[in-house]
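Morning run. Coffee first, then this:
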Amino acid sequence: MNYSVSEENYIKAIYNLNGNKQPVSTNALAETLDTKPASITDMLKKLKAKKLIVYQPYQGCRLSAEGVKVALNIVRRHRLWEYFLAEKLKFEWNEVHAVAEELEHVSSPKLIERLDEYLGFPRFDPHGDPIPDHEGKMQTLKQVKLTQLPLHTPAKVSGLTDQSTDMLELLRHRKISIGTAVEINRKFGFDHSVEIKIQDNPLFIISEQAAQHILVHHE
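And here it is:
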């Protein structure tokens, strides 16, 4: 079944607010979608009628089993398009999200399967978020914050907890992206900043504020 852009945006917003596991309040949805609570209520009634959510007034909503499937499909399309834009069209990290927000609503199953195959079935998007496969399954990595990485332990950047434009711009300036090999050379007690080493670059210092948003994976 096909859904409207607005319906898909609501479903994805509920999913992103952990609505596949616990009730999401109308106010939380209104804040996320920048929409009036009255409009939220009207849409929730429509989604309930389509059996995509479980909803009771004043008790919040959560996704039904079918709603979770729809949400994962939207997330899959979004992250595949992000990967395509970054890897094939060389868009910057901070550019891919807005474009993928539009492309994610192109719902042709054949197109998405061909896109996945063309890209080599990637399991993570340019920001390190897992890409659901055609069955909705996602691969997970054991990750730690860069601030928690022991000294002189080789690791690879695998994700971000802050994907703001400012954060992505900082990482691009430092030549850090998903998959970048990184190692902490020194930790400073005064401000908890860290001196890090990446391949073919001089040692440099990164603040604790930035380092705690960088996720890394090591053996």
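The domain at 144-217 is CATH 2.30.30.90 (SH3 type barrels.). Good start to the day.
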